[in-house]
Amino acid sequence: MTSANLTRDETAARSSTIRLDTVEVDLDVRDARDPATQTFPTTATLTFAAAADATWLDFLGESVDSVTVNGVAREVQWDGARVRIDGLAAHNVVTVRGRGRYSTSGEGLHRFRDPVDGEVYLYTQYEPADARRVYPVFEQPDMKARWRFTVNAPSGWQILSNGAETAREDLAGGVRVEFAETLPLSSYITAVAAGPYHRVDGEWRSDDRAVPLGVLCRASLAPHLDADEILDITRRGLEFFEPAFAYPYPWGKYDQIFVPEYNLGAMENPGLVTFTEAYVFRGASTAAQHEGRANTILHEMAHMWFGDLVTMRWWDDLWLKESFADFMGAHAAVAAGGFPDAWVTFASRRKGWAYVQDQLPTTHPIVADIPDLEAAKLNFDGITYAKGASVLKQLVAFVGEDAFFRGAQRYFADHAFGNTTLPDLLSALEAESGRDLTTWSRAWLQTSGVSEIAIERGDAGDLVLTQTDPRPHRLTCGLFTVSDRRLVRRGTLQVDAVDPRTPLEGATAAGIDLVLANVDDRTYAKVSLDAASTDAVAAHLSSIEDPVARAVIWAALWNSTRDGNLPVTRFVEIAGDHGTRETNIALTTDAITHAAVAIGRYAAPDARTPLAEAWLDTCWAAVWAADPGSDAQLAWARALGGAAARSANLATEIRAMLAGTAAAPAGLALDPDLRWAWLVALAATGHASAEDADAELASDPSAQGHIAHRTVLAARPDAAVREAAWYAAWDDESLTNDHLAATIAGVRAGDRRDLIADFDDEYFARIRPTWAARSIEIARRLVVGLFPAAESLDQVDAWLTQNQDAPAALRRLVIEQRDGLARDLRVRAAQPAAH
């Protein structure tokens, strides 16, 4: 392990002897527009008390030029990751000057040049530990400080940080901007952004307080920025969270900035929240996309309290912020955001993510064991976010919503600007609810794995709820019958299930066509449908009135397909039939996505081509049959692109629509994103050339256009083309994070395994050196994105056997990819023989 990979034990030892007070940061990015300049001057001055003679600061920069301790220059002791500081007094002022390096990986201070106008944009992204790429820090969440930022940047730029701007003066080559001192913050949520960003201002008022609001994006995206909707959601959220948490928003201003080449959905930097530009919709967008953006805005806003005001002590308790924010995003979207179906989307998407993650051999408890930063980086997963939020939803039902929020209010009041662990939260909730949460915590927070629940029909008409991996569930079972070709709910049963088998007292299977456990999605468990229920939903799923019940059923069908119990052909038939009639666009989109995955990964090899061709026909018919301009039409048009990458049967028709020589379906806008998606599909089957890609780029020279152009070029089904792209992904270190992802997407386009199978041995030879040489974000994309979709486990098993001493985070990724491949092979083998 290198000194860059900080451990839990050594950071705990450091914080036990150091009490940090303030950090002053001075950055100079006036030369950022010069492509030849790769570094920038950075200075940090830290004021702290010490009970030890020596410590270290964390810095992953280009150079450390000077170190001053209490006014005395010291010899620089820096190993590339840690700056040793010795001769400390009881109270200290330490200044470290050096040079940081601009990033193209989305970690640290990311620099982006807009191909539309040549303008340069900067922003920072630090979680879990990349502030040290920009300035020397104590890089651990339990060492909070009051931060004062000063930034030198080109004139005419927007320059932002967590605090409000307090002073500005001209200087040679630019301006110098000072920002207000923050309240105590952990280093990973400090932030800076600079560039000619387009800005829209707003305000939110609460009694006699005014909170300035700002929404920003690149200038070339300004025509697409629907700032009014974003500001409306922001005001609704602040209006909801302040009284809910009984603690005024503490961070002054509230800027939200949409940034390019972002690795995450968003990041909760107080006063300067960063978001992916994917939330700036360049063309047509569905209600589900707007709901998803609102959910993310509210998720990050919840972090202003859960995570920013009160912060976990170490990354073991990451759930203390992420699980709560995930829960609060959906809860607030329903309660205040104007999206009453947010829990439907949660049931389908977020819990689906959790179910997949929780079945991996690397699953872990919600309260995880995180020994070091590499482990922390990979723990931003479906367990920490979605399973944790699912369990919290159950907890709210268990203790009552009022008691839950009172507990949260007590938690904030007791620990504001501090750091916490699991017992701190549980004690607050216990105090307000009067319930002992020890057993609940042990069952749900401190164990791993997912229960599978089903309902058996006995010969005498009795019903029994069964569960694997038993946990205490409080859930609702729905009983449905077919009436006038519709599935209608005839009754519900409230069940407290603890044991492997729980009889459903007072219920009978007589006359019941569908028995649905967890019909209201209250608990966290995989639901399995019996054969009669599966037949009923195959015929009548889209007729069920309750969208949450439909979400639970769609999830049950998908999990059954992933487990090899429901044939892929049957799932795809159901998706084609009821996906076209599903009225919730998020469920429609998920059904479409799952059908495509089922064909590509789980279908028997001899069935894949006819199934792919049939699915292409389904998508084509659905696009033409959908209401003009509807969300469903757009969803199926996007699906058409994915389907056309596997079958060229409609290539001529799709090319004609792109060329304008054939009419597109009425109401369907062929916006740039849809055009590129279709062009990638055509390229993957050999029906789009480099010249076609160049012509499309001329029409859409945006950043997104350049990314898609790269994918089209790499997707052409020529062995030499795929080989060049494969090697470029590994060897071309000039590729930014998004350009790397685009290259990998081209290599994998159309599932053309035959074009890249020869590189399997080299993949396994490369991953360990790549992990050592590249940033964890870039290395992760390569390890996951280029993992061979082989026909056996022999090579990956050999690598795992021969590399038992490899970094734990790398082994985790390989183990997870192996598990996915093993499932693919197992499910394919379980498919019924074709007739």
Describe the structure.
This protein is α+β, with helices and mostly antiparallel strands. 42% of the residues lie in helices and 21% in strands. The strands form 7 sheets. It has an 8-stranded mixed β-sheet with strand order 5-4-7-2-1-10-13-12. Strands 15-16-17-19-18 form a 5-stranded mixed β-sheet, with helices on one face. The longest helix has 22 residues, at 808-829. The relative contact order is 0.06. The mean pLDDT is 96.
Average per-residue pLDDT, rounded, comes to 96
- How many helices in DSSP terms? 26
What percentage of amino acids are in beta strands?
A: 15-25%
Widest beta sheet: strand line-up: 5-4-7-2-1-10-13-12
Structural class: alpha+beta
How many extended strands?
28
How large, in whole angstroms, is the Cα Rg?
Answer: 27 Å
The percent range for helix content is 40-55%
Shape: globular
Largest sheet: number of strands, sense, barrel closure: 8 strands, mixed
Distance between the termini: 55 Å
Instruction: Classify the oligomer.
Output: single chain
* Uncertain spans: none
What is the compact description of this entry?
This protein is globular. By secondary structure, it is α+β, with helices and mostly antiparallel strands.
